[in-house]
Write a structure and sequence with these properties.
It is built from 14 helices and eight strands. With 309 residues, it is α/β, with parallel strands linked by helices. The strands form three sheets. The chain has a three-stranded parallel beta sheet, with helices on one face.
Length: 309
Amino acid sequence: MVVCDCTSLTQAGYVGEDVDSVIMRLWQTAGQNVERTERGIIVLDELDKLASKRNKHGGKDIGGEGVQQSLLKIIEGTKVTVNDKAKNKSHQIDTRNILFLASGAFIGLDQIVKRRTASKTLGFGTPASSSSSLPPPPGKRPLSSSFGETLDDSERTERLVKIKETEERNKARDALLDQVEPKDVLDYGMIPELAGRIPILTTLHSLTKNDLMVIAKDKERGVISQLTDLMSLNNCQLEFTEDALAAIAEMAFCKKTGARALKSIVETTLLEAMFEVPGSDISHVLITSDTVLNGACPVYTRPAEHSNN
């Protein structure tokens, strides 16, 4: 299996990678074995970047619709020639049995589905718009919660309101994407021939706070495990409390940039500790929710403190 980035693909004859390079990469990944290559899997990532662009200046769209048309033959089934420069030989690879998977963010596809499914009825029987059920605008809270609150209570209330608003928006977006049809993909910019060759459409739901906590605590590829291993090089143990992990997940959830926000939040939280630990006798660093939310100093433990205890 090989994952190919569609953003670098262009039409033949232009600067960039041709569509045939996708088969070449699969052939190299399969150990230059033709039989294994013909039963391989190709993931066309960032396919939404190939959506046909409406060029106002009349220029040619060499990285959009043209690449989609070049992909048609390969997905349908054809023979592609790959050159083995080391042995000065060429091989014919049949793409009929290669499984093609396409993925992409498709930003704005939910709005296309919303326009298609929106009710346009008029007169009696038209459902009234429930404006009262909409979440309050960002930065505003109900007046009833603004009296008798401390600053910490006020900030926590604002954070909880922001989390609730984000959850409601994600649920509404996921509900729209569950109704996606090939026609919506065509309106997004895919040509009908390519959409017909990829008949199965499925969507992924937005990440929740619990999902972000699981990603953060992943022992193999999680950002916390990477920084824990980095701290262990200085004979120091790094520990996060459950409240700290929940705070990190909440902050990443509100940033709306997915799991990539975890790395920036954790590194910002550990910025001071990364300078304090090297060359010191600190043996343990404890990160609390106060450190994550308010920038408080982490709790450092030294060997002398262990002996006293």
